[in-house]
Design a protein that fits this description.
33% of the residues lie in helices and 19% in strands. With 306 residues, the protein is of the alpha/beta class. The protein has a single domain, classed as Glycosidases (TIM Barrel, Alpha-Beta Barrel), CATH 3.20.20.
């Protein structure tokens, strides 16, 4: 009887250490696939579309089967909230619907800066914070009250919102912003992330991605990604052994574990069921290009069977 109790207690400890499993999903940029096709409803297609409910349902079911509980919706381009809004709102609404059906959750990944061309086109004179604060209001009013919208937990019940900047760039701008320029952003637990460079001293809000292997200062949030290198010229897809090591490492985060993206070929950190044998982008080719399940099955085995 004593031995049984010890085993049970040990099992509880291991479970408590496992971070909540999340993965990014990319709802834009199909032109960046450049020969890559993803398995959707039994066929390999290059133009998978979250705006089509059957496709959204198939993708999210695959994510759930792999052990992912929460999806992070990439809405980092300002144009997705303006001239392209009618195209992208239905995609987000389909993901919301399927999360409800499948008892999954979601939260949103927004931008943190604005290009000068976008500012000129939209007659924006000020810096980026008023714009993204307005986007945070839209998310707060329309999505963040969903039961499926993920709240951080761990003593902070605010809904999560990611900003596409490292903390050492984001938080100084946040401090300088006027109260009416961040009054909706502050309703969220903001996460920040590596973009395309090595951050030697990560902040506690960092760790959510975006590429390679990453964690915040304490290791409470960790990202495992199947791509190595940082700038595009050094990117490559890691092998199965390294991917497995990274998954187990990320899984040990005390709060959140992020496993790259299901389909982000733009930034090469995708692990979905994909045929990469015909791609024109060298760093996006799976190490075994004849096996579309190369990364997916490894992740699924570790998250669901370990």
């Amino acid at each position: 009887m004593k031995k049984v109790i010890i085993v049970l207690l040990f099992g509880l400890c291991v479970t408590a250490r496992a971070g909540h499993p999340c993965a990014h999903v990319l709802i834009c940029c199909r032109s960046m696939n450049k020969g890559i096709t993803f398995e959707i409803n039994g066929e390999f297609v290059s133009d998978h579309d979250y705006g089509e409910i059957r496709q959204a349902r198939d993708i999210l079911k695959k994510l759930k089967s792999a052990g992912i509980k929460t999806v992070i919706i990439d809405m980092t381009n300002a144009s997705q909230w303006t001239r392209l809004w009618d195209e992208y709102e239905p995609m987000v609404n389909n993901i919301r619907k399927v999360c409800r059906e499948e008892e999954m959750q979601y939260f949103v990944h927004i931008g943190a800066s604005l290009g000068q061309e976008f500012k000129d086109e939209n007659n924006i004179k000020e810096d980026a914070f008023p714009f993204w604060n307005g986007i945070a209001k839209r998310i707060w009013d329309n999505w963040a009250q969903d039961p499926e919208y993920r709240r951080y937990g761990h003593g902070d019940d605010r809904p999560i919102l990611l900003a596409f900047q490292p903390g050492h760039m984001y938080w100084p701008s946040y401090e300088k912003a006027q109260e009416n320029e961040k009054n909706y952003l502050e309703k969220f637990r903001i996460g920040t992330l590596q973009v395309n460079g090595v951050v030697k001293d990560p902040m506690e809000s960092d760790g959510w991605g975006y590429r390679s292997k990453w964690q915040n200062k304490s290791g409470s949030v960790r990202l495992a990604s199947p791509n190595g290198g940082v700038p595009p010229k050094t990117w490559y897809h890691i092998d199965a052994q390294e991917w497995g090591k990274q998954i187990r490492w990320a899984k040990e985060a005390s709060e959140y574990s992020i496993y790259g993206s299901y389909d982000d070929t733009c930034d090469g950190f995708f692990w979905g069921i994909a045929d990469t044998s015909e791609t024109k982008v060298k760093h996006n080719i799976y190490p075994d290009s004849d096996n579309p399940y190369y990364y997916y099955e490894i992740l699924k085995k570790i998250l669901t069977n370990d």
